[in-house]
Amino acid sequence: MCGIVGYVGKRNAAEILIDGLKRLEYRGYDSAGLALKSDKGLLILKEVGKVADLENLLLGNAPVSYQGIGHTRWATHGGVTLANAHPHRDGSGRFAIVHNGIIENFMEIKEELERDGVVFLSETDTETIVHLIARSYHGTGDLLETLVEMQKKLHGSFALAVIQQDFPDRIYCVRKGSPLVVGLGKGEAFCASDVTAFLPYTRDIQYLEEGDIAEISRQGVKIWDENGELSEKPVVTVDWDVSMTEKSGFSHYMLKEIHEQGMVLRSTLKGRIIDGRIAIEQELGWDCGMVSRWNRIHIVACGTSYYASQVAERVLEKWTDLDIKVDIASEYRYRDIRCDTSTLAIFVSQSGETADTIAAQRKARACGAYCLAITNVRGSTLAREVHSVLLLKAGPEIGVAATKTFTGQMAALFLVALQLGRLGDTISCEEEERLVNEFLNIPYKVEILLEREQEIRDIAKKYVNKSNFLFIGRGISFPVALEGALKLKEISYIHAEAYAAGEMKHGPIALLEPDVPVVAVIPRDGLYEKTLSNIQEAKARSAPIIAICTEGDTHIGKHVQSLMEIPWTDEEFTPFLTVIPLQFLAFHIALLKGKEIDQPRNLAKSVTVE
């Protein structure tokens, strides 16, 4: 979950690396550091805290350097200390590395190295790698051979950038299980955990595959496979630009990304609806014969992506006749679940690098399932390994708490559900056209909601000092309640739980009192009356109630203290609207509490380790 960046070229390496680390800081912000090659050898500069703290340390301390590696850390092995911050170097000081991932057998390797007299200065698994490289290189004198042998000894996941003081203008990279890409410029080259790190300088990239070793230099990039054989990789030009990674006048990335959701929906739908019909079968490579072989769908995801999948579960049950199962990736991969050639397995991941989701996909594919990825990142590990990909087209999401990608994931999954319904003859042409017409209206209704931010800010002021919240919803609104609770706890650190409203009497009602607000997601749908009964139960226990309801609902106001209204839409599409007020509520409560919204404590954007 850490962020790696490397640079070789003619520019000021320290400036390039700091800029790249700022763009990667969503991946971790416990500590940060650089290794810069200078005339006097390798200079290591690191600091506990955020990249800005490292930047302050560099003032007046950074040497003239055109080559270096950088790291922003999310702590796994070892606490948040200066000694544990990356980069790490060997005893001679000739090698330095940065690392993303986890080495599972590091204790075994560490004990072996200690018997050889190696002295360790940190508690990290990473330090074992740099000592292992240095020892092997001393024997071989060939760094490529050293890195090939190293991979055989390390168990776990890792992305590495390696710098050696005797190698001018060269950095070596290794990728196994953790993401790493290289960027190609004129007389310069880059490596990073994510393309956002070097978007201001180049959009021409090469994705490293499992086991790949790359050498980046001013002359370009060379790539070898895990056996040390030269490997040709296509150069891909990404369609993101640097403006997508800026705040564009907003105070926070999260706020900007909430406001981008109308655009995200238009972008995700564009070109995929033609003449009132869903038209993604060619993009996915599907036909009626293929779809007829599937009798079940497994949807697998983590966190916010899991809640988007639960929303999709409801419409798939309605629009298809397939058996639908939604599971958390970290559970799915270890369960004995029936999965074979009659299974369509859908894997949902914003980054396409979520370790548990990738492992679950590999399990399903090995069982014969047809695998589809719903992801925001073209060329990600997940996207490269599946049979078909449907991209969100949301642009980079920098805020750790997902907002616009939740909306994009739902949109992509709805497109899949409608396509399956048509190819499986479970949706009539008339019904498809009606649903599609409303789907196309959703971006406009989202933007109507975005204009009501001030109303929700006023509600946030009323509840900012509460310590516990309960979220409830029924049917398709239950996953939205789960997502609303997650957003609040992620960025405000307030305890928030969500329940299916019908479960109130089975335990959660014991929590209700005047100091515990209940947030009820209650649009005008087929379960409205049932949810209203649950609201009345909460009201009878003197709990203050905030309702997310459909505008024009004159009845609900008699039972609640606060209202957040959404435009009318079909029941199936209400999640695209009901989630917006919940995102704003979480944001403004966190803002009033003075929390670090874009980079909440203990969290990282992309969970690339198990």
Can you tell me about this structure?
- This protein is α/β, with parallel strands linked by helices.
- The protein has three domains: 3-245, Glutamine Phosphoribosylpyrophosphate, subunit 1, domain 1, CATH 3.60.20; 253-449, 3-Layer(aba) Sandwich (Rossmann fold); 453-592, Glucose-6-phosphate isomerase like protein, domain 1 (Rossmann fold, 3-Layer(aba) Sandwich).
- It is built from 19 helices and 26 strands.
- Strands 3-2-4-1-10-9-11-14 form an eight-stranded antiparallel beta sheet, with helices on one face. A six-stranded antiparallel beta sheet has the order 5-6-7-8-12-13. Strands 18-17-19-20-21 form a five-stranded parallel beta sheet, sandwiched between helices.
- Helix 4 (126-140) packs across helix 5 (143-153).
- The longest helix has 22 residues, at 429-450.
- The model has no long low-confidence stretch (mean pLDDT 93).
CATH top level label of the largest domain: Alpha Beta
CATH architecture tag of the largest domain: 4-Layer Sandwich
Biggest sheet, open or closed, and with what strands and sense?
8 strands, antiparallel
Total number of helical segments? Answer: 19
Mean pLDDT: 93
CATH superfamily of the largest domain: Aminohydrolase, N-terminal nucleophile (Ntn) domain
Silhouette? globular
Helix content: 25-40%
* Biggest sheet, spatial arrangement of strands: 3-2-4-1-10-9-11-14
Report the span from N to C terminus. 10 Å
CATH overall fold name of the largest domain? Glutamine Phosphoribosylpyrophosphate, subunit 1, domain 1
Radius of gyration: 25 Å
Beta-sheet strand percentage?
15-25%
